[in-house]
Amino acid sequence: MDNLLPMLFFFIVIVPSAIMHEYAHGWMADRLGDPTARYAGRLTLDPRAHIDPFGTIILPLLMMLSTGFLFAYAKPVPYNPYNLRNGKWGPVWVAFAGPISNLILALMFGLVFQLLPISNISTFLYIIVYANVLLAVFNMVPIPPLDGSKLLLAVLPDSAKQIKQNLQRYGFVILIAFIFFGLPIIRPIISFLTSLFTGGVVLF
Q: Whole-structure pTM over 0.85, yes or no?
């Protein structure tokens, strides 16, 4: 029961955090000249427009009941890179908008955590910070289709065309392998940023 309650809080937090992540993608694309998300009715914080039945509900519930790692994602916001004002770096800015929105949320709730005395609400605030840091860091891993891959593909030279094609072709397989074997690489980063935003406090 002691472990179930934080995981339940985490589930409650990570779903709206994932929705904010996707909204930020659409917002940035719209600012850079592509109205696709707006025309599709996705430039909204209404969860009904963003919930993916599997990624937002079923997957996190299954993971919560079967593993110690909980993750969720919302329905990807559509955008047309050819409409962006900067064809090379526009997609990078659209991709980075998602993780940046999560880091802003983590910073805001981390400041609230530090200002309030430790109480029952502290656990919930801490989970908000942790969940948003997790979303930001995980999505910055440079593996397609994660957001970090957009920067990698932008900086790779034209001579690395084959590498780009292989990354895009086998990205999902590489991502699955990373989830099973590579998570220890990013866990210290997640822990460091969570501790940074919460003033050095570690609750779990």
A: yes
